[in-house]
Every structure is written in C-alpha cells, then in structure tokens.
Amino acid sequence: MTGRRSRGEGSLHWSEARQRWIAEVTVGYDSRGKRITRKASAKTKTEAKAKLKEMVRDLDDGLSIAPHNYTVADAVENWLDFGLSGDAPATVAKCRSLARAHVIPAIGARKLRELSADDVDRWLEAEAPGLSADTLRQIRSILRRSITRAQARDKVKRNVALLCDLPAAGRDGRPSKALTLARPRPPPCWTPPKARRCTPTSSCRS
Questions:
Q1: Whole-structure pTM over 0.70, yes or no?
Q2: Helix and strand tally (H, E) in the chain?
Q3: Is the pLDDT reported for residue 107 higher than 60?
Q4: Which of 43, 52, 72, 151 sees the fewest Cβ atoms within 10 Å?
Q5: Distance between CA atoms of residues 172 and 168, nearest Å
C-alpha cells in the first residue's frame, strides 16, 4: 500500500501519450484529503529534473508554484484587467492600446519564468526605430508593472525588465513649445562712433 506523500515530495515519469517527461510535486492536500500537485513537462529527463528541483525549491522558499505555461501575455492582461483600477479611462485605453500593439504581439507568447533581460533588451531594440522616446518608455513601463504584479503573486521570482535600459528611439518626440516660440530678435550691435581726427583748428587741441 502506497503511503501518504509528504509536502514537497516529487517524482518523474515518462508520458507515452505526450511523449514527454513529467515532473510532479506534492504541494499539499485539500479538505477531502485529495493530494494537490503541480506538474511540469520537458522533452528530456534532464530538463524535467531541473524543473522538479525548481518547484521543490520554490516550496522550500515559501513560494507558491506558478504554472510553467504562464506567459508574458497572461501577466500583461492580468495587469490591464486588475492593475489599473482608479486610473482615468483615457489612461486605461492608452495602456491597452500600447500593450496590444507593441508588447503582447512581440513577446506575449514567451513564458514569464523564462523571460530574460536579454529578451527584453532585444524587444526594446526592435521596437525603438519606429517609436518616440516617450512611447518606448511607456511600453517598457507596461511590461515592468505587469511583471511586478505577477511577482507579487508568486508567478515569477524577479522582474527582469527592471534591469533593462532604453535604447535610442528612432522617432523624435513632439517638439517642445518652448523651442518653437518665436524668440525676440537681439538688439542690433552697437558700434561706437569714429573718433574725430585732431587738427590744429580742432577743439580737441589742448
């Protein structure tokens, strides 16, 4: 008879149906005594072992185990739905538009746990030529705030977007009014009158 598995106990097995290795860890039991598990899969046994160790380590650290298929798009959509409460409708609309035009199509399919600072750098570099510096700053902010919200809910351990600087934008932003206002013309240069040449009959004779 198989005994009751302890919290944090993990196992590996091969799934013939999925043709993948399955890593499974026990995270607890519900009120009915049914075992609650979290699973991850990989093509190789080595990769599955690494994922199993990561899940067990998260449990030891007191973190809930986020599903491995949680994507950047999931995090961004969650922030758009719940992280903008209290903001003006125009702000919400602009964030949705920018997120769905520049963030989700480019990196939304990436698994959040696997997103790296290099991924974010490459994304920003690819977006930069067609955007102003202000728009580039806004889409980076959307990603940062989305990951921060996911991090607070134990979906990911760290926010890699905080490590990334902005590249040079390809488009100039809206020109400042201060630079477009007509400047007053400087006063004409003053030139001193020519000194009179002294002659014997001149009043300048001493």
A1: no
A2: 7, 3
A3: yes
A4: 43
A5: 10
